[in-house]
Amino acid sequence: MKKTVLILALITSFNAHAATSGTCGTRSGEGTDEDPYVYADNCNWTLDESGKLTITGTGEMGDFEQIKIGEDDYITSAPWGTGITSVTVGDGITSIGNAAFVGAKKLSTVEGMNDVVSVGDAFERTGLTSIAFPDSVESISSFAFCRNLTQLELPDSLTSISSAMFWDTPNLKSIIIPPSVTTLEFAAFDGSGITSLVVPETVTTINSAAFAHTPNLTSLVIEGNPEMVGNIFYAIGQEPETVWGNTTPLTIYCLAEAGCEQKAEGTKANVTEYTKYDNGFYQIGDKLYATADLMTHGAACDNVQNCQDILDAASQGKPFEVGGKYYATLDLFASGAACTDKQNCEDILASNGAPFKVGSKIYNSIEDFAQGNNIKFRIYTIDEANAVAGKTNTFSIRYR
What we know:
Elements: H1 2-16, E1 21-23, E2 27-28, E3 38-39, E4 43-47, E5 52-57, E6 66-70, E7 73-76, E8 86-89, E9 95-96, E10 109-112, E11 118-119, E12 130-132, E13 139-140, E14 151-153, E15 160-161, E16 183-184, E17 196-199, E18 205-206, E19 219-222, E20 227-228, E21 251-255, H2 260-263, E22 270-276, E23 282-284, E24 287-289, H3 292-296, H4 304-315, E25 320-322, E26 325-327, H5 330-335, H6 342-349, E27 356-358, E28 361-363, H7 366-371, H8 382-389
Parallel strand pairs: 5-8, 8-10, 9-11, 11-13, 12-14, 15-16, 16-18, 17-19, 18-20, 19-21, 21-22
Antiparallel strand pairs: 1-4, 2-3, 4-5, 6-7, 22-23, 23-24, 25-26, 27-28
């Protein structure tokens, strides 16, 4: 009974934001029955009326608890509560504690973190949709993120992808593994929404179930020859009634010596072996590709020089030619969306977000062009519509 009363008191306190400032360093249990924790004063926090949380000081932030308040619903035990809208972590703070912001559904931005080295499972059940970590961060905990996350920039200082780091992130479609990473831990990408992934050659160890339960994954490129510990392709390409796995067609691109063919036995994934050369280009059969992404899309170069020309032009924001056709960007080349000619490509690149024309079709954006989503109906001015209708207020304007 006493424990229940304590939890209810804590919840009431958190949601009401009884305090607007305090300490948040490594905790001890030297407090009172009503408030059992004491936090070291190396870390301090302030919360303003708008919900902006600012954390200052030096050294480590303390860890917090997840408190269950309903069926699969938790909040943080941190003294700032769950009403925070933004977080600024000041210079000097070296860690973000476990469960620091759990349940903060209004949280939209996290800034600073310039000296943070380690990040706990801090962002579960928050409203956070995007976050970028500075290159000071070397480790990120398991279960660190939330369902709302759509964009993530991992730091070049990160050394491993922790076990189940991306669990329950179905809206996160794209992840770039930085070259600093050497290990994918058990179930590293389990439960994520990734659609494609390149494992760089710097990764020397991949552990069991690393890509399990990723139902949107259609292409997986494994560079180098990492040690594969256990069944790394567990739950890839399985039937949905046997295990929640990949039900979309999946191709694993792998060097022959990596032995992916044998490791993927029993799955519904297709394994395609490729060769990678010192110049960074990829080859499958007699086809040459400038990047791993272009390889997975089957967008081949004409020859080695053409591969280099493609990369040079793309890096300069210029159009390039492949097989007699012109393309404005690498993404458009990957999708097979060719311009009518070089000038048309230049017009597309100069559109700056405005609609542009390719042939007889009009597109609102490069993304729409890549997906073939042209404008279906003409948008008339009032004068044009009146002229077409023949009489004021008897026309309809149709929008895409």
